């Protein structure tokens, strides 16, 4: 997916300070992306990372008879991994390496941009008429951010089970159970379901900072009710999370976590970098047709980069 930022300048995003548990709610912002209504949860105006997770868009649930609710033309990325995770429907990924993969519920599309890749994401011509999911970005740490680009598609992800609880491990590890997706920093992303009416305990790594977002149903985390379209930041220092499902439906939530990232990243458009010069070079390369290659399988024009205006970035923007 593409970061349709309204701001021409870069945003500095720092992680939490690792000072222990918190319970802070960040409300999503409603936006549109190529005609698709999305809720942008990260980056938030508080500008924080959760581990390496630096971007979270949620979309749907929606039903459609015709057309393509998702049609994001070819655009470039640097310095990050993208994770596409669907609750319903289909998204077709095509990239400049020549990879093409259909994301469906339960499958992971994981793209590592490294030094540069371009991709498109669209509703395929044969579809269910439904769409619901999230797209996430994980920032690559400095030592890995110039790796060669790659794409992975995984089905059959590991499922952690505890009384009244199941959690599909999307990326990283949960209680020692590891996703086959390649991760570049200590991280976890999981899709957690608690049976209707049940209380359950989810094991966490106390060295990680964590956050959760409600996907379906209703319930509470650590005694606090979960609001729709909001990210609940949990801080570090938790070895277990107490979850309760309310009402007649299971509670389903997205768990994000990771070791405090320890680096401040600069985010602009679809780039995660460290300096304004890197962003300017990546933008120039995209506009000039260098570095990123071509998404040959996509029918249609690619996205143009917006104008880039470097501006002073505040030294610390911890929320
Ligand atoms: Mn993208």
Structural write-up:
This protein is mainly beta. Helix content is 4%, strand content 49%. The protein contains one helix and 26 strands. The chain has one helix at 276-288, and strands at 11-13, 21-27, 29-33, 36-42, 53-63, 71-77, 80-89, 91-95, 100-103, 108-112, 117-122, 130-139, 150-154, 159-162, 165-174, 177-178, 187-194, 199-203, 209-216, 218-221, 224-225, 230-235, 240-246, 251-258, 265-268, 271-273. The strands form five sheets. Strands 2, 14, 15, 16, 17, 19, 22 and 24 form an eight-stranded antiparallel sheet that branches. A seven-stranded antiparallel sheet has the order 3-4-5-12-7-10-13, with no helix packed on it. It has a four-stranded antiparallel sheet with strand order 6-11-8-9, with no helix packed on it. A hairpin with a 2-residue loop joins strand 20 and strand 21 (224-225). The relative contact order is 0.22. Bound molecules: manganese (II) ion (MN). Residues 1-2, 75, 77, 82, 119, 270 line the site of manganese (II) ion. Manganese (II) ion (MN) is lined by residues 1-2, 75, 77, 82, 119, 270.
Most strands sheet: 8 strands, antiparallel
The end-to-end distance, rounded to whole angstroms, is: 25 Å
Overall structural class, as computed from helix and strand content, comes to mainly beta
Number of contiguous helices: 1
Spans of at least 5 consecutive residues whose pLDDT stays below 50 are: none
Order of helices and strands: EEEEEEEEEEEEEEEEEEEEEEEEEEH
Name the helicity range: under 10%
In this entry the ligands are: manganese (II) ion
Secondary structure tally: strands: 26
Query: β content, as a range?
Result: over 45%
Radius of gyration: 19 Å
Give the overall pLDDT as a whole number. Answer: 93
